[in-house]
Amino acid sequence: MTEVETKKPQESLQDRLNQVVELLHKHKLVEDLAHRQEGQHQDIVENLVHRQNLAELQRKLDELHPADIAHILESLPLDDRLTVWQLVKAERDGDILLEVSDAVRETLIADMDDHEILAAAKEMDADELADLAPELPRDVVHELMESLDAQQRERVRSALSYEEDEVGALMDFEMVTIRDDVSLEVVLRYLRRLKELPGHTDKLFVVDYDGILKGVLPIKRLLVNDPDKEVADVMASDPVTFQPDQDGYEAAQAFERYDLISAPVVDKNGKLIGRLTIDEMVDLIREESESEVLNMAGLREEEDIFASVWKSVRNRWAWLATNLVTAFIASRVIGLFEGSIEKLVALAALMPIVAGIGGNSGNQTITMIVRAMALDQVQTSNATRLLRKELGVALVNGLVWGGVIGVMAFYLYGNWELGVVMTAAMTLNLLLSAFAGVMIPMTLQRLGRDPAMGSSVMITAMTDSGGFFIFLGLATLFLM
Amino acid sequence: MTEVETKKPQESLQDRLNQVVELLHKHKLVEDLAHRQEGQHQDIVENLVHRQNLAELQRKLDELHPADIAHILESLPLDDRLTVWQLVKAERDGDILLEVSDAVRETLIADMDDHEILAAAKEMDADELADLAPELPRDVVHELMESLDAQQRERVRSALSYEEDEVGALMDFEMVTIRDDVSLEVVLRYLRRLKELPGHTDKLFVVDYDGILKGVLPIKRLLVNDPDKEVADVMASDPVTFQPDQDGYEAAQAFERYDLISAPVVDKNGKLIGRLTIDEMVDLIREESESEVLNMAGLREEEDIFASVWKSVRNRWAWLATNLVTAFIASRVIGLFEGSIEKLVALAALMPIVAGIGGNSGNQTITMIVRAMALDQVQTSNATRLLRKELGVALVNGLVWGGVIGVMAFYLYGNWELGVVMTAAMTLNLLLSAFAGVMIPMTLQRLGRDPAMGSSVMITAMTDSGGFFIFLGLATLFLM
């Protein structure tokens, strides 16, 4: 982990991106010219300009932090992205690969040969290798593993044995361990001998001779206590610990709740096997919120915004197909009442209002419930109460807005019975949308599925078919 | 900030919540009984049981970290919430108030008298007071300010002078400052004299006699370097700094990008005036993603899931009203074509398919664009390219799914011209939804608005009215 010493980089990140884009465009312009012109003399001149531009671009990129380059790569279309990648990949490719999003990483790795990948991986820690491994060609991974020493290989294997979002896959192995029977003075001297401490070291891990975690010594305490004191007297002996098979998102919530910076991971016997750090947790928190947004909208996964049309189509395919089926069902519901619509064509114009407002209101409910579930605020014990509240909101909205729309229907079509049916249908559909908005995510969770998954598509399906059925059914009963 | 030493609290948080709920229910059951029974003897017995339950609950709560109590309060309906609040508020009300969400905090403060609020606020730091102040009664704030010393008052005032999400409102004042002309040994002795270091102290701030920031001394370097060295030789002299009027979310992104734990805030002259810490930034990252979700669904703000029906109605009112207007417009679009529907009632059954799938696909596009914008990946320079890609995806989806639906329409109604119109309308509406999905958030951003704000409602409005117009228009042109 490199120490950052650039001044106010966040201010000018956008500027830097723009500078890179500008240099890229200059470069491309010259390339285009070179293609079009034939004279040899001109070729040489343009080649010079071309090289100057690339050199300038290279200089610019060399100044940037790997995280900034990652951001620039993510913000560039594929061809520009690969031009930049060619310029930076020789030296800092490893750091950059670890910073970019999965979707973009795939495009970068596809541009590297085995030799380049191996060189990039050589400088990585075991946990970083494990992060990268699933996306590398199989034989490259094999060769990589061969090149590691036994402890490193064991660590990579262990990290790979856990699910992507389990603590075991998120932890690193850069723990500084000490014994509890030494003085703080000895600890201070020990640290000095290390020359460098791992990033995010806010505490040292106190272990016994079998590697069992006995406590943690926060650096804060090491600094303010008398150096003659023993570690055992100063350490926190009952720290927050995590198990490797625990859900990473739970760990992230604990980090957030208890303001942790690093925390030990122990196995079933209490043996220290790794540590979690806040930077991994922040990434997880962000990813979790993102996948909530994406899943609700029916996107299968994070999408490289410059992905090919074909890739994007595949990413959105599943939920669109589902939506097609539900829309077809809604259409058949209307088909049931074609006779009524023929007699009173106003029904065709009014029915989308009932369905649309139900869908909108249902989306509000479901968004709120999915969020509360992500924060663990919803239990079976309070489900009924939540449902009652949402039904109350729906009833108020239905009577008020349904009333408004009913009056408008009356004015438009001069038929007061149509107005009453409209109000009644709006109210009933809003009640249905509230019911579905609470029950869909709860049912998904009980089935062990992600409650956000396509919930927006599902609620819209319910309120569409339901709305048409309620409105056209009531109209057929009372107006025909 | 209290040091957490509870063992694996994250494992049992849900259990603890359940225990509290159970105790609360016991307590309420007894209360109910006491209300119903009249005999005096029984009253006394039940009063005893009642008190025992409360005592047990109190014991349970006393063991918990303020953040855990905050979580429990957020997960309880209002009456239970206030019962628990009564039990905890005497001692740790300040810590807990700072941990709960804004919506829940409001309900808790409403339950406190001025005296209690003042007592709770007494132990807070200036930045915490500033967080709380906007939600307190005006005269309480006045009294609070009177009770502060000049420096504290000045700090609260300064924090209050910034927007809620500016760095100046997010920073705290717990900086440990040192001079650059002393040895590390002197620094170590100075820290020991402090007895305690502020939370999240991963670096010390090096300032000159005028308070101008000259660099930072990471604790890591303090620990591994020779104590005889001078601060000036070891410090990082060009650290990442922030300005108080900078956007907090930008700062949070910088924290994430550069793996920061704390960072100095300086004024225009380079004078150190505060510091940002990762815990505030994590909160901000979470809030930002949440407000994105909420805004897209048309919820005005974060909602206490147990808010009263009336409060919830108000929170959702604005976008529902907008939706009512847009639905009405869509209805009038259909009204234009009532003649065609009378002649061919199949149009009424098929038109929601065109509108619905357009809405769904538009929501996928807009979700992706809003996310990319939040990550600063979208510039005007790549807008055209994005638009072209989304139009490409829409074209593929329109021809494929529109084709499927066209064939189905043909089979259902035995009218091949209807099938062709259906396919054409689907394709055109998907192109419209892609166009709107890219342009709506971009336009909102150019107007200086939040691109997520109600974007889902807006895109649905476009694809509904647009879809009806395209489909019914084509049908009227070619089928009548």
Description of the molecule:
The structure is a homodimer of 480-residue chains. The first copy, chain A, is mostly helical and 480 residues long. Chain A has three domains: 9-167, no CATH class; 177-297, CBS-domain; 309-479, SLC41 divalent cation transporters, integral membrane domain (Tetracycline Repressor, domain 2, Orthogonal Bundle). The first copy, chain A, has 21 helices and five strands. Chain A has helices spanning 9-36, 40-62, 66-74, 78-99, 102-109, 114-122, 126-132, 138-147, 150-160, 167-170, 184-194, 219-224, 231-234, 248-258, 278-297, 309-336, 338-343, 346-374, 380-413, 416-446, 455-479; strands spanning 177-178, 203-207, 213-218, 262-266, 272-277. A three-stranded mixed β-sheet of chain A has the order 1-2-3. In chain A, strands 4-5 form a two-stranded antiparallel sheet. In chain A, α18 (346-374) packs antiparallel against α19 (380-413) and α19 (380-413) runs antiparallel to α20. The radius of gyration of chain A is 30 Å and the shape is globular. The model of chain A is unreliable at 1-11 (pLDDT under 50). Chains A and B meet through α1, α3, α11, α12 and α14 of A and α1, α3, α11, α12 and α14 of B.
